[in-house]
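Quick log. Single chain, no ligands specified.
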Amino acid sequence: MDELDLAKRILSKYPLCSNCLGRLFASLGYGLSNRDRGVAIKTLLLMKAYNVATGSVDFETVLLLTKGGVEPAIKLLRNKKLEGYESLKAEKCYICEDLLESSEFLKAVVGKILDKVKEYEFESFLVGTHVDAEILEREERIVSEFGIPFSESIKKEINRELGKKLQEAIGRDVNYRNPDLTILVHFPQGEFSLDVKPLFIYGRYRKLMRGLSQSAGRLHVKANVKAKPSVEEFIGRPLLKLTEAEMVRLHGAGREDVDVLMLGNGRPFVAEVVKPKKRNIELERVKEMIREYSKGAIEVEDLRFTDRKTIAKLKALSQHTTKLYRAVVTFENEVAESQLNLVEEVFRNKVIKQRTPLRVLRRRADKVRSKIVYEVKARKLSNGKVEFLIKCQGGLYVKELITGDEGRTKPSIAEVLENKPIEIVLDVLYIEEFGEDIVPRGC
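-> predicted structure:
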């Protein structure tokens, strides 16, 4: 059976617009649109159905073409005055219900998309289509029933045609792997949604004021959410304004307590800017705005654009990188120099067993973790006050290393000294850069 006979068999059962008919033969011919193919097939069928020289008419085929809206076939029936021709009318396409018969539907969708995307800065885009299941099922029914080997899906065609029209209109590249903007069109509704690739900005922050949490809360930083003084707020709000984003979320390589300063080279972080309208921002300006907005409480360094993978790396490395803390501890009783020497000896490359601290037990699983203290340097400041420099593995709860947390951390400095801490002032002095060694250099 040749292709024309196949097309006639299909049309005898299913009325199809030229576009949907042509799509069933998509891999045949060169340089043709699916509509071109469909028009060509219907034209050839009409040519075979009517022979001017002999005057013979294959009315069965002409009727099929009339139902498919082929205007010359309709005129032929009128001229021949076939009985009942006046009541004949074109039927809607079985697959698309005539939405793809003309280019107006796609033009209208493109127009709406262009109105929306002009609000965004982007260098690349991708178009996707969600086609109603009923339409896909109708198309698949025809392909399966007639065993058609050269068709393409309606979804693929709409993606391609919309992509071509949008690329021509906006002058941006199509990117199949990592587009700045993904446009999802719903067919046949003609509605669409935008998925904007987040901006990811890596940096290191110093927290120079006590009393600031790292997190702004479960809602993070949004334009319509009341500002809550925090590291996330002071970094996120300037980014929110510059990018006109929907939200900014901070991902830190670990976190310090509210009452702890983050000094030295700062804590690595990634700021995730969600649905930014502006992507081309000056990071030096971001740095200045953060310092101004926080009134000097937060400073950031080494800002650079990155990707989502960096977040996972930060989280993983934060549990293994070496960190250096300074703790000024006031004890209940006087501390002797000999006791400090013992502390330094005990906590040299010492494995610490820590059960989840009581103060975080409500939000963390109750389990025992093993962490390493590499080195402790101790200096007596007064009879009951000692300064400790503690070099340890990431993820160690340093306050509990000092207090013992009612026996949940072993060994602890309080246990070795047999002395109860009554005040701890803690600072993070350094967080290891990947592959770099740090050593406490005295006090």
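Residues 435-443 have pLDDT under 50 and may be disordered.
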